[in-house]
């Protein structure tokens, strides 16, 4: 059983480890290996420390704790774009679980808590972006009630263009 709480500054190193190892596991064979190999926990933690200390930061970060340390992380807030015909839209910016613990319900727990907090903040819909080729994540989000809505955007990783699909669900 995991416990979910607000992330604090002491969690940055653990969250960066989860994020970098999560990218390297989830996106192997999708994102160019050169890009994945260049990712470091130290570099990510430096960026995260700078971002975490910004005054007025509007996003929320939650961690799932295993025995003592974080084993999962989710970041969410207001939707960063526009969704015609929908008002009060929140967005899941990132969700990563320690790769060796995937499939144990940690992601479901974090996502459920993020949904509850978004709804409590007045959001009616949650949106997220997922790489088109990341079938495992797409299945996970579909089971959580998300559906692709036809919007797509391209991201470039080491000169390789990958497409992300936008998905959303009612909270």
UniProtKB/TrEMBL annotation:
Taxonomic superkingdom: Bacteria
Keywords attached to this entry: Acyltransferase, Transferase
SUPFAM superfamilies, per database record: Acyl-CoA N-acyltransferases (Nat) (SSF55729)
Segments forming domain N-acetyltransferase: 2-163
PROSITE patterns named among the record's database cross-references: GNAT
Transmembrane feature ranges: none
CDD domains the record matches: NAT_SF
Protein name (record): GNAT family N-acetyltransferase
Source organism (scientific name): Streptomyces prasinosporus
Upper taxonomic lineage: Bacteria, Bacillati, Actinomycetota, Actinomycetes, Kitasatosporales
């Amino acid at each position: 059983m995991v416990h979910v709480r607000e992330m604090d500054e002491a969690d940055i190193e653990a969250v960066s480890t989860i994020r970098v190892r999560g990218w390297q596991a989830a996106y192997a064979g999708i994102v160019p290996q050169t890009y994945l190999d260049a990712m470091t926990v130290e570099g990510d933690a430096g960026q995260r420390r700078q971002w975490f200390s910004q005054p007025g930061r509007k996003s929320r970060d939650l961690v799932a704790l295993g025995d003592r340390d974080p084993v999962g992380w989710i970041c969410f807030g207001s939707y960063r774009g526009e969704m015609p015909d929908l008002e009060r839209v929140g967005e899941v910016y990132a969700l990563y679980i320690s790769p060796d613990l995937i499939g144990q319900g940690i992601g479901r727990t974090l996502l459920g808590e993020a949904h509850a907090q978004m709804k409590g903040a007045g959001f009616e819909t949650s949106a997220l972006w997922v790489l088109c080729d990341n079938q495992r994540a797409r299945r996970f989000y579909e089971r959580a009630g998300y559906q692709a809505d036809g919007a797509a955007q391209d991201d470039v990783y080491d000169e390789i263009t990958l497409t992300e699909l936008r998905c959303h669900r009612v909270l």
